[in-house]
Amino acid sequence: MDNTEPKRIILIGAGILSSTFGSFLKNIEPDWNIKLFERLGQPAIESSNERNNAGTGHAALCELNYTVEQEDGSIDIEKAKEI
């Protein structure tokens, strides 16, 4: 498998988490081909609205805040499992 080729990424749903994740990926890997698909007429009008969202996106948090990189490069997922 050739790991040097840019990846093709498909994100389903234009809610806050897919949009945030897509933005992170684009910053980290600008050569990747990232496509975001939404079936509704606008982004973030279903589960990301204020009545349905779990709150992590709107509180400026995401799962990366719950998976802390340790000094040795490993990832501690205990906080993510607790949440």
Structural commentary:
- It contains two helices and four strands.
- Strands 1-2 form a two-stranded parallel sheet.
- The model has no long low-confidence stretch (mean pLDDT 78).
- It has one domain.
Lay out the secondary structure:
Elements: E1 8-12, H1 16-28, E2 33-37, E3 68-69, E4 75-76, H2 78-82
List descriptors:
alpha+beta, 83 residues, two-stranded parallel ribbon, 4 strands, 2 helices, single chain, two-stranded antiparallel sheet
Write a brief structural summary.
This protein is α+β, with helices and mostly antiparallel strands and 83 residues long.
Span between termini: 36 Å
Biggest beta sheet attributes: 2 strands, parallel
Poorly predicted parts:
none
SSE-based structural type: alpha+beta
Integer-rounded radius of gyration = 15 Å
User: How many DSSP helices?
Assistant: 2
Estimate the mean pLDDT confidence: 78
